[in-house]
Design goal:
The structure is a homodimer of 368-residue chains.
Chain A lengths: L11 H6 L8 E2 L10 H17 L3 H22 L6 E4 L2 H11 L7 E5 L4 H14 L2 E5 L4 H4 L6 E5 L20 E4 L11 H4 L3 E5 L11 E5 L1 H6 L35 H17 L1 H21 L12 E5 L3 H10 L2 E2 L1 E2 L5 E5 L6 H10 L3
Parallel strand pairs in A: 1-10, 3-4, 3-5, 5-6, 6-7
Antiparallel strand pairs in A: 2-8, 7-8, 9-12, 11-12
Helix pairs in contact in A: 2-9, 3-9, 4-5
Chain lengths: 368, 368
């Protein structure tokens, strides 16, 4: 199956058919968890059926390894990196922790971050602050590049921030210290050019814009950083030769950073979901989602909502007098958005799978 | 459904019906991955169907939290501990890493371990050796209690070892330093009395003797150790109030050690699997499995195989001239065991779901 037309546009009805939730709800929540495609559910069911009937022994572990290799390839294509530089994780938080811990910073070090970061990154920063005495300095998101000083050891921030879909300053590509991006709202949502971003690591989620299961994720670690990055947690998956015991070497490539255990069914689900999207073509998907999100932003402004300053991303945060109450009312009307902490904003996540009808449903359901 | 007879014996045919693989194979591999029960597959399918049709938003995260709380209760019942002391992990390796890292040992410290440990524990030990300069001292498994000296800071070893199903010396309950057990071959397989074991932490697997999915596990951390144990990795799941940003407090209980992200479908699968077993009654299951394993050991000895010294556990390791070739031949004959590194042993994992027919199939398929 392919939904790609010869003109590179997305065949939206074929795409939407993959996502049953779209037939019922105006589902605008991929910034939390994406819609799950039928093909992903079917892949999970097939793996579970195999495990049920055949058990989980030698052939099962070979199957898991094959599925993991295939998922690594799919994820690497999303980020445009080599498979050797791509680790499989349980999500963005784990990927960020692997990098922030692995640098083994201490009391003389400073991590620069922004005032609009997600708890997934803040948890990792908190840990090295509390346990290793690393200084965490917070600057306004848009000022990050200017805020780098000679005392800065690492920049850790969003590529696209979760609060309003703004992009990190392009000037971060020029700073002299390593940059790790929280790519939770980037991977799958917007085009990613790692070379242009100039980042050394990029951590992202499998369950958001890549429409996979909770508990999956991806971590790019560039070759330069890989040499510097200690492997702080080690399981069988990270060892090149587990049977060598305490003398075992680490995997030579990014598998040294892989999460300890992803089930065959989770990996198959994630891979099938990415496959559904890849079949339609990333460029066409990104173009469609970004322009649709722009339309959401314009129409929301027209009906009197303040739209938070954003980039050409897939998130649209708009003002609400009582976001939690309005979220619940929207949900009751079949429109799924999320409220943001702070009591002022609702956030609509707009994917290529959404369409004009979802926008109209949102507008009709809003309090005027 | 309950398979418990009024006499506390296991209704074996009702139990075996839950495991379709047993209708085809003499499946003796729970020490790697247990057989998956029908009810667990059905629970996964139901969650995926819900996610497919309803999406994954507010109600989804409430459902995940409910499922996690229920699984924590099931796991706590397996170990006989309070739910407040039970963390959900991705497997034994992660649980062991959480403890070994969290003690923040350094160059003056020594971890005592044995010469028969699994790479899942050795990886964690290797990490603190290489990164923090902790000394790792290796003693014969059965000599561990005597090998504790004033320089020992922590004992980290199997409760039941994976190589031959022997038990750690009971005298470890009396040593003056913290003890963390690798319980991968303990939890679900044999009775566990944490107070009698005298351990401070017990890490185990969801996918082995608890018949759940890969990527699930449990970690007991006793109240005394919890206060000493730093939370080295922190995600949203570990924070009491993620919206407090860098000022967020850790969860007050063992949730501070929870793995970052377990999917609803994985948690539901794990919970349903444990539920199948719990319905039959742990005591009856343990009794049946341990006596059946003893019978495997006797019969294997009768046909001339050397059985490695073992305890009253569910693992039976027996000699083989060419274990890898014999494992493959057994597999072709529908008998699933594993070969162990070192080139001398095959290992049969005997669960309460196995029966005399599995033993006969194994014996018939062995080279004589």
């Amino acid at each position: 199956m392919s939904g790609r037309s010869i003109f590179g546009h997305v065949d939206i009805s074929a795409l939407r058919e993959q996502f049953p939730v779209l037939g019922r709800l105006a589902y605008l929540n991929a910034g939390t968890d994406g819609p799950l495609p039928v093909r992903a559910r079917d892949a999970a069911a097939a793996e579970l059926e195999r495990e049920l009937g055949e058990g989980r022994a030698h052939a099962h572990f070979e199957r898991r390894a094959q599925l993991s290799a295939a998922l690594r390839q799919e994820y690497a294509a999303v980020l445009g990196c080599a498979t050797d530089d791509l680790a499989l994780t349980s999500g963005t938080s784990e990927g960020l922790s692997i990098v922030v811990e692995g640098l083994r910073l201490g009391a003389g070090d400073e991590i620069l971050t922004s005032d609009e970061e997600h708890p997934g990154l803040l948890g990792a920063l908190q840990a090295v602050r509390d346990l290793a005495g690393v200084r965490i300095r917070v600057a306004p998101f848009q000022e990050l590049a200017n805020a780098v000083t000679p005392t800065t050891t690492l920049v850790a921030c969003s590529h696209v921030n979760w609060t309003r879909g703004a992009f990190a300053p392009a000037e971060l590509a020029e700073v002299d210290v390593p940059v790790v991006f929280d790519g939770a709202q980037g991977a799958g949502a917007v085009p990613i050019d790692l070379a242009a971003l100039g980042c050394d690591a990029y951590a992202a989620a499998g369950q958001k814009w890549l429409c996979g299961p909770d508990g999956t994720g991806l971590l790019y670690v560039g070759p330069k950083l890989r040499e510097r990055l200690a492997v702080t947690r080690r399981s069988y998956a990270n060892l090149a030769d587990g049977s060598a015991g305490l003398a075992a070497d680490l995997q030579p490539d990014a598998r040294r950073f892989d999460t300890a255990s992803l089930s065959a069914e989770a990996v198959a689900t994630a891979g099938a979901a990415v496959g559904v999207l890849a079949d339609f073509g990333w460029s066409a998907l990104h173009g469609r989602a970004i322009s649709l999100a722009e339309r959401f932003a314009s129409r929301l402004a027209e009906v009197g909502r303040t739209v938070a300053p954003r980039g050409p991303s897939t998130l649209v945060s708009f003002s609400s007098v009582d976001p939690e109450a309005e979220r619940e009312r929207l949900s009751a009307a079949g429109v799924v958005v999320r409220s943001l902490p702070g009591g002022q904003w609702l956030r609509a996540s707009v994917g290529a799978w959404n369409d004009e009808s979802d926008l109209e449903r949102l507008l009709a359901a809003l309090d005027r």
